[in-house]
Specification:
Length: 544
């Protein structure tokens, strides 16, 4: 029995009770606070109407059509074109925005997109930073520290008067948006509940998106709006005092006394009886020794294959793995590209940005919740293809519908959002089953990078291209989704198929099958937790 199975048996004995629900509540709350920061550009730096204000005293002035310049007649009678430096901004929808306060128009319009992308740029560093810190100092410490910094940075933005400073803080927000809390929640979850937990973890994002739309409807000044969605981040901080460190991490790090205290508290809160302390400590010692052995083996392997792993040639070594790597990267890119495009480009579908974002978040919930039963019945490949294609067609059709038919345009956009949300829920499991065990984390890591690149580029399309050619943005997003669906046809079905251990297994035909129902979600979560936790097992000298 492996370290993971032994600890999972311990979690099974503890069951699911108030202790687990308390951790889930913290995770749920913190995740719900992410959308208002991630897609804040929708309301803080939107594209709004404006008119050039030429200098006073120039009666014979002709303002250009784009209000970025004006032509005046000099005393000599010649015409001179000069750039506008002041504008009159429309305040019918927003009373104050970053766009109006810092004049993010004309030659500075790119800053609207950069404001949104700055957050995503920060997330490029968060997985590496979060993984190292959480393994070195513990899950709870990292979660608490990052949440404190996120609350401080988010609140600080509301008081800054410099665009460079605002962009810098946005990058820091992205860096501190670590995944430690998700790992912590999965580590403390009863194995048979991980499938349900994995399905529910998308719901806080949807609720946070809905709340973001409603809050922005009530508060139209960007500074007060930023404060309104940042101050709740401070409310949860005192609750962290009652949260325990991950018992799995404590055991692996050799802190058995603390682990016993945490497990006793968990048993008390869940109203179960814990096994005798002597047996519990013996089990902890076994788990730690197995984890240390695994870590030592991995360290020796890493020394031999450091160059190999850095260049990742194994992901391109055979035809089968090349197909998987290429298509999964395309799918990850497409799902983030279209998902973020639909979030940020709402003004292309309906004139009411508040209603659109609220409904957009609402439609995500069935997309997340229905994904699991659908793929358990019909597999992974066909639902992914159909969701991509159906969503892509719906979004593409918007490009050919007159802007006057806003209800129809919004309905199609929401249909596309539903489909893409389903793909988001399916894709991580599907990719985990496609990649062999020896390169699973590397493959998903490479695909995640392509996803982040997509999120970085999207704001420039919605902010710069959207106001000029709104039909083209719908065409781009729709065709991207449909194309990704077509590429997905090149992948194999993984339902009821043994998971490959090596790249060589991909080319071996086997008739042996395993049943991958909702427990496969738990299997993937367990293997991921095991690889993350075991890799952090300390050497004996480090423990001293």
């Amino acid at each position: 029995m492996t370290e993971t199975n032994k600890f999972d048996d311990l979690l099974t004995h503890l069951g699911t009770g108030f202790w687990n629900l308390f951790i889930f509540f913290i995770s749920f709350y913190c995740m719900m606070m992410v959308p208002p920061q991630f897609i804040s550009g929708v309301y803080l730096a939107p594209a709004i109407n404006y008119t050039c204000l030429p200098p006073e005293g120039n009666e014979s002035v002709v303002v250009s059509e784009d209000s970025c310049s004006y032509t005046r007649v000099t005393e000599a009678g010649t015409e001179v074109e000069e750039a506008c430096t002041e504008w009159d901004f429309d305040t019918s929808v927003f009373s104050s925005t970053l766009t109006s306060e810092f004049s993010l128009v004309c030659g500075r319009r790119y800053l609207q997109a950069l404001y949104q992308s700055a957050y995503v740029i920060g997330t490029f560093f968060s997985p590496i930073l979060g993984g190292y810190l959480a393994d070195r100092y513990g899950r709870k410490v990292v979660v608490v520290v990052t949440q404190i910094f996120i609350a401080i940075f988010a609140t600080t933005i509301a008081f800054l008067n410099n665009m460079v400073a605002i962009l810098t803080v946005r990058v820091l927000l992205g860096i501190f948006n670590l995944l430690t809390l998700t790992v912590f929640t999965l580590e403390t979850c009863e194995p048979k509940r991980r499938a349900l937990l994995g399905m529910l973890l998308g719901v806080p994002w949807a609720l946070g998106t809905m709340a973001w739309g409603g809050t922005a409807f009530l508060i139209r000044d960007w500074r007060w709006l930023q404060l309104a969605v940042s101050l709740p981040l401070l409310v949860i901080l005192p609750v962290f005092y009652f949260m325990d460190e991950s018992p799995r991490w404590l055991i692996v790090r050799g802190r058995h006394d603390q682990a016993v205290q945490v497990l006793r508290k968990a048993a008390r809160w869940n109203r179960v009886t814990l096994q005798p302390e002597a047996d519990l400590r013996a089990l902890m010692k076994e788990i730690q020794e197995e984890s240390a052995t695994y870590s030592s083996t991995q360290a020796n392997t890493d020394k031999k294959t450091k160059k190999f792993r850095l260049t990742l040639p194994i992901l391109l070594s055979t035809h089968a793995i090349r197909i998987i790597t290429a298509v999964v990267c395309i799918d990850y890119f497409a799902v983030s590209f279209v998902f973020d495009g639909l979030n940020l480009g709402g003004d292309n579908y309906i004139s009411d940005p508040f209603l659109y974002i609220t409904l957009s978040g609402m439609i995500e919930i069935p997309g997340y919740l229905l994904a699991a039963p659908i793929i358990n019945r019909w597999g992974r490949r066909i639902p992914t293809v159909l969701s991509f294609v159906l969503g892509g067609v719906a979004i593409t059709v918007i490009a050919f519908i007159p802007s006057e038919l806003q209800v129809l345009r919004m309905s199609l956009a929401l249909l596309g959002k539903w489909c893409i949300s389903s793909v988001y829920q399916i894709l991580y499991l599907y990719a985990s089953e496609l990649f062999p065990t020896e390169v699973r984390m590397q493959g998903i890591g490479v695909a995640s990078v392509s996803s982040q690149f997509a999120s970085t580029f999207v704001p420039f399309i919605t902010s710069l291209l959207g106001p000029v050619l709104p039909w083209l943005t719908s065409l781009i997003f729709g065709m991207t989704a449909a194309t990704a669906g077509m590429f997905t046809l090149a992948l194999r079905e993984t339902k009821d198929v043994p998971l490959p251990d090596t790249v060589a297994d991909l080319s071996v035909t086997t008739e042996e099958a395993i049943v991958l129902t909702r427990d496969s979600w738990s299997t993937m979560a367990s293997s991921t937790i095991f690889s993350v936790t075991s890799a952090s097992a300390p050497e004996k000298d480090a423990e001293k």
